[in-house]
Specification:
Layout (H helix, E strand, L loop, with lengths): L5 E9 L3 E4 H7 L1 H5 L5 H5 L10 H6 L12 E4 L6 H15 L9 E7 L9 H8 L4 E4 L6 H14 L6 E8 L16 E10 L5 E9 L8 E6 L5 E6 L4 H24 L8 E4 L6 H9 L10 H4 L5 H12 L8 E7 L4 E8 L4 E2 L7 H8 L8
Parallel strand pairs: 1-14, 4-5, 4-6, 11-12
Antiparallel strand pairs: 1-7, 2-3, 6-7, 8-13, 9-10, 12-13
Helix pairs in contact: 5-6
């Protein structure tokens, strides 16, 4: 059966207004920085033994001398900002970039990690802000939400059920860590959005492969606590063995999904022009290129700009690659994302004439170009 050509027609990103560098922590928490190797962040990203035991740990090794483990900058929510405000900005820009109106959107898929309220996702609230009349669904695949949402939206448009599906992805980790917790150095906030519609013949999504990540179910959790004023708050819990568990499983997940998507698309690894990985650590892109045996010039790494923004990383990498002309119309692009206690997923698509929303006003592309010349980010 021949399916119609469907894929991304517009793409946008949105980031909060607070930009935080390593100097913030050095100036505000000098005692913690001095003792960082005894703190939670360093314990999570470390080696039990001196020698690495897998590709993930090999690529991690150069960053262990950096107390920030390669984190350079973060984007943090300011008062009045939220996952909804970020999603709204990205979604609005994606609609406008596609030269469509709210009435043209006939499905909204939203993946918020995590939504603003307990018990309800952001989808209906975002639909209200955008003035949409269509269905609004919440989707959860943790840090794999971008490829999973893309796969879902493309399938529904290919089936003829919908014409223009809007996808919004956000991550607001800063809400779930105390500022003096060194784990907060690793996490950040951001959002992205894209419209999925019909494209020119032979463009759009060509093949996918998704597997579950139940093997990582015990690595992240949330705990309800109280602050000093007695207000209840959620705090993310990350056990010491998380880094090791990810390192031992990451290569198999990457290979299974990428090789499966390439086979489903009927192409070869060598034919892929560009690779987009979610980059939750400073070395994840290098890890992926090592495992797949590809030239590092065939991918991009926005971790130095944004740190770990969860599912929004895949959108951010995709946006910056397109904005820097690393991806051009009719290029074969593979995207990959994985999330603990969820799924790992890869998709191969032939890039269309994708309209981009306005660039983040933070000099990010020039920073991106400069960061590409540095294989190791020092402290």
């Amino acid at each position: 059966m021949v399916y119609p050509s469907v894929g991304i027609c517009s793409l946008a990103v949105s980031f909060p207004s607070v930009r935080r560098t390593k100097d913030y922590y050095k100036e505000k928490y000098p005692e913690i920085v001095a003792q960082v190797e005894q703190k939670s962040f360093a314990k999570m990203i470390s080696l039990d033994n001196c020698k690495p035991s897998n590709e993930f740990e090999l690529e991690m090794m150069p960053y262990l001398s950096d107390p920030f483990r390669g984190t350079v900058e973060q984007r943090i929510l300011a008062p009045g900002e939220s996952s909804l405000t970020l999603e709204y900005c990205a979604a609005k820009n994606a609609i406008e970039a596609a030269k469509l109106s709210a009435n043209d959107v006939d499905l909204l898929l939203v993946a918020s990690f995590l939504p603003e309220q307990v018990g309800f996702g952001n989808a209906a609230f975002l639909a209200r802000q955008l003035g949409l009349q269509c269905g609004a669904w919440n989707l959860d695949a943790s840090c794999a939400s971008t490829p999973i949402a893309l796969q879902t939206a493309c399938a529904l448009v290919q089936a003829g059920i919908h014409r223009n599906a809007l996808v919004a992805i956000s991550c607001t980790y800063s809400r779930f860590f105390d500022k003096d917790d060194t784990l907060s150095w690793f996490f950040s906030d951001g959002a992205g959005a894209f419209l999925v519609s019909s494209l020119k013949p032979n463009q759009g999504i060509l093949g996918t492969k998704t597997v579950n990540t139940s093997i990582l179910c015990d690595q992240f959790s949330f705990k309800l606590t109280e602050d000093e004023q007695g207000n209840q708050q959620f705090r993310m819990q990350v056990p010491k063995g998380t880094n090791k568990a990810i390192g031992e499983t990451a290569a198999d997940l990457l290979l299974t999904c990428c090789e499966g998507a390439i086979a489903a698309a009927g192409v070869t690894l060598e034919q892929i022009d560009f690779f987009i990985f979610n980059t939750p650590t400073a070395w994840f892109a290098s890890f992926c290129t090592r495992v797949l045996g590809i030239d590092p010039e065939r991918t991009i790494n926005v971790y130095p700009l944004y740190a770990n923004i969860g599912p929004a990383l895949t959108v951010a990498n995709l946006y910056h690659a397109a904005h820097l002309d690393k991806i051009r119309e009719n290029d074969l692009v593979l995207i990959y994302g994985f999330g603990a206690a969820s799924s790992a997923s890869a998709s191969v698509m032939r890039w269309g004439d994708v309209a981009l929303g306005s660039a983040p006003n933070n000099g990010s592309d020039s920073t991106m170009k400069n960061s590409e010349t540095r294989s190791i980010i020092s402290c």
